[in-house]
TrEMBL record:
GO molecular function terms noted in the UniProt entry: glutamine synthetase activity
Keywords carried by this UniProt record: Coiled coil
Name of this protein: L-glutamine synthetase
Residue ranges of domain GS beta-grasp in the record: 85-178
Coiled coil start-end: 648-675
Gene3D superfamilies on file: 1.20.120.1560, Glutamine synthetase/guanido kinase, catalytic domain
Length: 723
């Protein structure tokens, strides 16, 4: 008997769980259908109120309380028209996920019936019980109060299914004492810091703007496997990754999946997911197969960082939700399968004015574009001086499996800037930049093919932080993580670098003949200090590790190497200086993330142990009994029993090894009870992980030797190739 029918998994899916297909969409019609757009508001609000609100949304001015009541009425009408019965403040606690608590619009009236109600106060402020969200020591459990506060700059939206729908209001989440317990508050604060410094710098270049903001677009990678397999793997269910599992005979060696034709079921899933995302006003643009079998990617067009972060969370939720309509599980973990590429989330980042000027657009002649060079220099300075923070912003247990694994950038932060800009910088450092190398046209050797304009620089896939034409791409971000803290770090460190360069310039300008000369000097000085952060070579190579060490760059291979640095004086001062995070808020984040690391590994350790003991061990014993019986019978018949005996021995030896490793793991888990969370996390990294690896080695050996019909777990071959 097969342990279950893989063919059924491949065949028994329908177009969605109702078995019918949805109507082909008219993209422009449905786009933003489930969001409360500014246009909706504009129509429904008195002009005076709208003007007030617009100032808050577009220029970041303080919210006028009168506005809330008017908006609440309009919002409720709109939501109820869409069939919503409930509303929720939708927020992003430090779990990295989203949270919601629904309240209905219903309120009893005098006559024994009910009316609906939603006031300005309901809109502006909520009060969820904060005691069950991670707070990292920011409050005691008996101080349960927490507040959510409406973010008028991110549109409210409707979540729906066949049975009904509810209104979601994006909010920030803070403790009773006003400390940020969430991911949104620091984004808004850091974007404000960036706005302030960018405006100050733009004044030097005589550019006026209402507001500057960072822009963000994320390329999300994910795996899809049949749910049939997912639910039979305790490790996928508790940990999101396979804790055991032998390498299949075929993995990604053939390079045949990347950009391959999209399988039928997956395409159906993508179409429905995109439709749902369009309704939420999320501008998805790109989809394709990724490198590993059953790995895919989706990317939207960039938006302002706050909205992009909200949309990123919605995107992850939607992918997971819609996949189930097709009998699929969408896996966002950074490393679901050993030996195959993991998943990342390239975070594309730039700075733009509200009038739409991209400040990282070099134009055709970057050597001549002082404004571009100024901001570019500030970013290199920011990255050079804050390698630790960038590394910390992507540090979590799952990403440790990926970074530096010859599939993802190394844990050393550096930046790739391409030939053209490297050349311009060299010229600058040698006295002055006179020209920019041009890409020109590239012929393809056939008269029927057009000549293509060539970029002035190639791409580099191994750099953790690469300049890609008119934006930076932070490629080390993990696929499952909230993008908020990486954005907060980028906004803050760049604001700080701009701040310092502006101050130098303001000090210098009196001693120089011209602004241009003063600018040139400031840029040159800064670049000569931070140029070591530029690396255009192969980031996967061992030589780079050596060279980076010679250059004095930080190499923090794991979460536990990186996280303790978050509370270094330099970092606390930086966050406080720009009013992004208080000292207590920085400490709380460190504690929460260390705790998350610890919890993740404890769950993995427990799951590994129970799978090995209750699934693998019994399967191997059954097989051994069969072999032993076989040896006895063969002997009775006077035949040669060497084959069965040898197999029996191998399995038996491995079972003994497995047992030993299990004891090691138990001991290691029990020993992790020190005083500080960071110490415990260190202990886990040094003792629990090696024991888990030993168990995995034994189990994977058994998988290759125990009879297939005894093996209780779906294997890689099935999970990855049944589509
Ligand atoms: P690439 O070819 O470099 O991958 P794409 O145009 O495919 O570039 O864009 C990849 C991602 O980068 C998309 O999500 C896109 O919206 C985003 N992106 C493009 N320009 C910017 C920008 N100025 N700021 C932030 N993100 C951007
Ligand atoms: Mg890209």
């Amino acid at each position: 008997i097969r342990r279950y029918d893989t063919l059924a998994a491949a065949r028994n899916w329908s177009h969605n769980k109702n078995g019918d297909t949805f109507d082909a969409m008219n993209v422009t019609e449905i786009f933003g259908e489930n969001t409360f757009q500014q246009d909706d508001l504009k129509e429904q609000l008195p002009k005076r109120i709208w003007k007030d609100l617009e100032k808050t949304i577009e220029e970041g001015e303080e919210l006028n309380p009168d506005v809330a009541d008017a908006v609440a009425v309009a919002m409720k009408d709109w939501a109820m028209d869409k069939g919503a019965t409930h509303f929720t403040h939708w927020f992003q606690p430090l779990t990295g996920l989203t949270a919601e608590k629904h309240d209905s619009f219903i309120t009893p009236n005098q006559g024994g019936g009910a009316i609906t109600e939603f006031s300005g106060k309901d809109l502006i402020q909520g009060e969820p019980d904060a005691s069950s969200f991670p707070n990292g020591g920011l409050r005691q459990t008996f101080e349960a109060r927490g507040y959510t506060a409406w973010d008028p700059t991110s549109p409210a939206f409707i979540m729906e299914n066949e049975n009904g729908s509810y209104l979601c209001i994006p909010t920030a989440f803070a403790s009773w004492t006003g400390e940020a317990l969430d991911h949104k508050t620091p984004i808004l604060r850091s974007n404000e810091a960036l706005n302030k410094q960018v405006k100050r710098a733009l004044e030097i270049f005589d550019v006026e703007t209402k507001r500057a903001t960072s822009t963000v677009g994320c390329e999300q990678e994910y795996f899809l496997i049949d749910q049939e397999f997912y639910y039979r793997r305790p490790d996928l269910m508790t940990s999101g990754r396979t804790l055991v599992g032998a390498k299949p005979p075929r993995g990604q060696e053939l390079d045949d999946h990347y950009f391959g034709s999209i399988p039928e079921r997956v395409l159906s899933f993508m179409l429905e997911a995109e439709q749902e995302l369009y309704k939420l006003g999320i501008p998805v643009k790109t989809r394709h197969n990724e490198v590993a079998p059953s790995q895919y990617e989706i990317a939207p067009i960039f938006e302002n960082c706050n909205i992009a972060a909200d949309h990123q969370q919605l995107m992850m939720i939607t992918l997971k939700r819609v996949a189930r309509n097709y009998g699929l599980e969408c896996m966002l973990h950074e490393k679901p399968f050993d030996g195959l590429n993991g998943s990342g989330k390239h975070l594309n980042w730039s700075i733009s004015t509200s009038e739409g000027m991209n400040l990282l657009e070099p134009g055709d002649n970057p050597h001549d574009n002082m404004q571009f060079l100024f901001f570019f220099t500030a970013i290199l300075k920011a990255v050079y001086e804050n390698q630790d923070l960038l590394r910390i912003s992507i540090a979590h247990a799952a990403n440790d499996h990926r970074l530096g694994g010859n599939e993802a950038p190394p844990a050393i932060i550096s930046t790739y800037i391409g030939d053209q800009l490297e050349d311009v910088i060299e010229q600058l450092l040698n006295g002055g930049a006179k020209e920019s190398k041009q890409g020109g046209l590239m012929g393809l050797g056939s008269p029927v093919l057009p000549s293509l304009p060539k970029h002035a620089g190639d791409r580099n896939r191994t750099s953790p932080f690469a300049f890609t034409g008119n934006k930076f791409e932070f490629r080390a971000v993990g696929s499952s993580q909230s993008i908020s803290f990486p954005i907060v770090v980028l906004n803050t460190i760049v604001a700080d670098a701009i701040d310092e360069l502006c101050t130098e310039l303001e000090d210098n300008v009196d001693d120089s003949d011209s602004l241009e000369e003063a600018l040139g000097a400031v840029i040159r000085d800064s670049l000569s200090e931070s140029k070591d952060i530029i690396f255009n070579g192969d980031g996967y190579s061992d030589e780079w590790e050596e060279e980076a060490e010679e250059r004095g760059l930080l190499n923090l291979p794991t979460t536990i190497d990186a996280l303790p640095k978050l509370t270094d004086d330099k970092n606390i001062e930086l966050f406080e200086k720009h009013n992004v995070l208080s000292e207590a808020e920085v400490y709380s984040r460190q504690e929460i993330w260390a705790e998350q690391y610890l919890t993740t590994l404890n769950i993995e350790a427990d799951t590994t142990e129970s799978m090995a003991k209750t699934m693998i061990y019994p399967a191997a014993v059954r097989y051994m009994n069969e072999l032993a019986e076989n040896v006895e019978r063969i002997e009775k018949l006077g035949l040669d029993d060497e084959g069965s005996k040898a197999m029996l021995k191998k399995v038996n030896t491995t079972l003994n090894e497995l047992n030993e490793a299990l004891e090691e793991l138990r001991e290691a888990v029990l020993e992790s009870n020190g005083d500080s969370i960071i110490d415990n996390a260190k202990h886990v990294k040094e003792n629990v992980i090696p024991a888990m690896t030993k168990i995995r080695d034994a189990v994977d050996f058994l998988e290759r030797h125990v009879a297939d019909d005894y093996w209780p777990l779906p294997v890689y071959r099935e999970m990855l190739f049944v589509k």
